[in-house]
Design goal:
This protein has 522 residues and is mainly α. Helix content is 71%, strand content 7%. The chain is built from 14 helices and eight strands. A three-stranded antiparallel β-sheet has the order 1-3-2, covered by helices on one side. Strand 7, helix 14 and strand 8 form a beta-alpha-beta unit. The longest helix has 149 residues. It is flat, with a radius of gyration of 57 Å.
Length: 522
């Protein structure tokens, strides 16, 4: 038993020793493996670190190189720019230097030329002084000879010469005074005609019954008494409210309204017709109806102006000018309705402007407004062209339109071809046959009379009436009529026309004298 215990103990001790040895051996091997692994890992880390370091070094080198190249490029660009500027400055300096050299050469050349001229002038001056001395000597010799020949001293000759010059000057002055007086008479007569024509156009004098009188039909003659009223109070109130003369005479079933102002006459006609239809005729009612009718006609005038602009395709016209255009419906000139005349002038001007390549809108507007000054109250003094000029200028019309309105009768200077077109269109519209109550037969006869009258003078070869009788051209025989006689002939023809013919406006007399010299080479 004890032996077994010892055996067991020995076995246990051997087992423990074996286990210890085995454990030591195992641990030693494992430790070696761990150390080797650790060494391998460390070496790997070192290798990786070296690779990373090399990679970072390469990247940093590349970045530094890129930055250096960028700075180098900027530096090079700046240097090139400065070089370019320097080159430009050098070129400018070279150009200036060349210009200065040229100017210097030019100045030298001019200085040389001036010196040459100065020398030449000095020589000429010396020559002139010599000639003056010679001339003085010759004059003195001639004076001595003249005194001996004429038996007069120089003082006596001067006195005689002065007397002759004074007499001649008096004769010339008298002739000049006569010419000035004759011209003043002609100009005064023309101005008088112009002023008379302006007055006729502005005030519409009694030149035709249709333009000054309106007839209102009534139901019976008893209504005439109601129109007159007790002691004439109704007719006086009506005339005061309308500014129209009411003529109640023996004409059956009719009352006549007379006035030069067509607008007032139209207000009076409509008012009287309404009063007759209403039956209530007394001063208060008359004033009420007249005021209402006048307000309605003012609205109609505005609409008439707007419709006219629409008809012509115009726009952008001030409202006050539109009213004045509408007023043209109730104005006339030589029996010709002013609005229809202006529309016709607008169309004619527009057509001619289109043919010549001008602005047709401005042309038509100028043609429409050329007589707008006739719609201004006649209490305002001045030619209608200048009144229209001021009116259109006041409401900021186009400058070409303003000038055309003011210059169509040559009261001011024309500044654009459209103004001349307006003047031509106005002459065409106003002077054509029938435009101003003149039949074709009388129109043709008037032209024939004008040509025959001009042809009745001696030395006249041919005559032509043009511009609808507003101008007559007279061709004379050059061997019978000289330039002085041509001027006298034009005056005599114009005087004879004034004395023997009746015509609206004025007639221009143009005498043409043409001389042709012909030779043949054989």
């Amino acid at each position: 038993m004890q032996l077994d215990l010892v055996v067991v103990i020995i076995i246990a001790g051997a087992t423990a020793l074996i286990s210890f040895v085995l454990g030591w051996l195992i641990n030693s091997k494992i430790g070696k493996n761990s150390i080797e692994n650790a060494k391998e890992k460390a070496q790997k880390i070192i290798d990786d670190a070296e690779k990373e370091a090399k990679h970072l070094k390469r990247e940093k080198l590349l970045e530094v190189k890129d930055e250096w190249l960028k700075k180098k490029q900027e530096f090079d660009n700046e240097v090139n720019s400065k070089k370019q500027k320097l080159q430009n400055h050098e070129k400018q300096l070279e150009t200036r230097e060349e210009n200065l050299e040229k100017k210097y050469d030019l100045v030298n050349q001019k200085e040389k030329t001036n010196k040459d001229l100065e020398k030449s002038l000095l020589l000429q001056k010396e020559d002139i002084e010599k000639k003056n001395q010679e001339l003085t000597r010759l004059i003195a010799e001639q004076n001595v000879r003249l005194e001996k020949t004429a038996g007069l001293t120089s003082d006596e000759a001067k006195k005689m010469l002065m007397e002759n010059m004074i007499n001649k000057a008096k004769t010339d002055a008298a002739q000049m005074i006569k010419e000035i007086r004759d011209q003043a008479k002609i100009d005064a007569k023309k101005e008088a005609h112009r002023i008379t024509i302006q007055a006729i156009q502005r005030t519409a004098v009694d030149h035709s019954v249709e333009s000054t009188v309106s007839v209102v039909q009534i139901q019976n003659d008893e209504m005439k008494g109601r129109i007159i009223g007790r002691e004439g109070r109704n007719i006086r109130a009506f005339e005061a409210a309308t500014g129209v003369d009411v003529i109640v005479d023996d004409t059956p079933e009719a009352v006549i309204l007379s006035a030069f102002d067509q607008f007032r006459r139209e207000v009076a006609r409509i008012s009287l017709e309404r009063l007759i239809a209403d039956g209530r005729i007394h001063p208060a009612r008359i004033e009420e109806v007249v005021a209402k009718v006048q307000e309605e006609l003012d609205e109609e005038i505005q609409k008439e102006g707007e419709n006219t602009l629409i008809q012509l395709g115009l726009h952008g016209v001030h409202n006050e000018l539109v009213k004045h255009i509408g007023k043209m419906k109730y104005r006339s000139s030589y029996g010709q309705n002013l609005l229809q005349h202006s529309i016709e002038v607008a169309y004619l001007t527009g057509i001619m402007a289109a043919e010549l390549g001008f602005d047709t809108t401005i042309a038509k507007k100028a043609g429409l407004m050329h007589d707008i000054g006739k719609t201004i109250d006649k209490d305002v003094e001045g030619p209608h062209a200048l009144l229209g000029y001021e009116l259109t200028k006041k409401y900021n019309e186009h400058p070409i339109v303003i000038n055309a309105v003011g210059s169509h009768h040559e009261d001011i200077e024309m500044e654009h071809p459209i103004a001349a077109l307006v003047q031509a269109a106005d002459a065409i519209s106003g002077a054509r046959p029938g435009a101003r109550r003149e039949p074709l037969e009388s129109y043709v006869k008037r032209l024939e009379n004008l040509e025959n009258l001009a042809k009745s003078f001696e030395g006249v070869a041919k005559t032509y009436a043009i511009q609808a009788g507003r101008e007559v051209r007279v061709v004379v025989e050059p061997d019978k009529i000289d330039d002085v006689m041509a001027d006298k002939l034009s005056y005599e023809i114009s005087q004879k026309i004034q004395e023997e013919m009746e015509y609206p406006g004025q007639i221009k007399v143009m005498v043409i004298r043409e001389v042709r010299k012909i030779q043949y080479a054989k």
